[in-house]
């Protein structure tokens, strides 16, 4: 049994989710608690993702992932975690399994407002929230958002914050996404593992770091590929001109323009930028473009 009689509750809101198209599992979290990313998010590529919070039992993370790796379904794993725990009434925990099936628990002793929402491939949960609509807004924003899994989870967290978030305020946030071979150089599975441990605007800072991280390290994905058309090509040309890449003449051809784009990417540390079949979304954002 795990005993935690001396620890305080962690007022937190989080989202756990699975994207079957990109083969990703992730957790996004924000809290008025120092270094929530140290305790709440857990994930393993090909296995699942877990968020443990409220009177958090951090052992839930590795234990749940071990059970999921053995092929157990989310609901069964959740039951095993709670049956082996000495204070399930104080816990809040959510997970998605390898197939994206979610399961969640909010104990009756979690400080209000506390609760969870589950939907296909996603669970949103929180405690010590300003109001119940925080979760409604988080789920709706996640569902409506475009982009890859991390972008959509961040959209959900921002919507939760806008709806009131943790009623005590804000302090930390984190974003963990895993994908088989999705890490640096394809040598591990950590697609992103970003934390803001102590900041007056943690979600804003996390969003800034995520955009910088994505621009620097991630290749263009299926949801980050901007199709070429004449209007967009002309706009990119004007952007590059404003950035000082052309002095007395414009490029004579599309091929030359795309060559300049490659040079622009290299100058700004963007690896393997795509400019032929479409425009790399990282370049598009860096230039100040929009979809």
Can you walk me through this structure?
Residues 1-7 have low confidence and may be disordered. Strand 1 and strand 2 form a beta hairpin. The longest helix is centred in the C-terminal third of the chain and has 16 residues, at 202-217. The radius of gyration is 21 Å and the shape is elongated. With 291 residues, the chain is of the alpha+beta class. The protein has helices at residues 60-69, 74-83, 133-144, 149-162, 202-217, 230-242, 254-267, 281-286, and strands at 12-19, 24-31, 41-44, 48-54, 91-96, 102-106, 115-119, 122-126, 172-179, 190-196, 225-226, 279-280. The strands form three sheets. Strands 7-8-1-2-9-10 form a six-stranded antiparallel β-sheet, covered by helices on one side. A four-stranded antiparallel β-sheet has the order 3-4-5-6, with helices on one face. The chain is 33% helix and 23% strand. It has two domains: 12-217, Glutamine Phosphoribosylpyrophosphate, subunit 1, domain 1, CATH 3.60.20; 225-286.
Task: Summarize the model shown.
The chain has 291 residues and is of the alpha+beta class. Helices cover 33% and strands 23% of the residues.
Identify the notable features of this structure and list them briefly.
alpha+beta; Glutamine Phosphoribosylpyrophosphate, subunit 1, domain 1; 2 domains; six-stranded antiparallel sheet; 23% strand; 291 residues; single chain; disordered N terminus; four-stranded antiparallel sheet; 8 helices
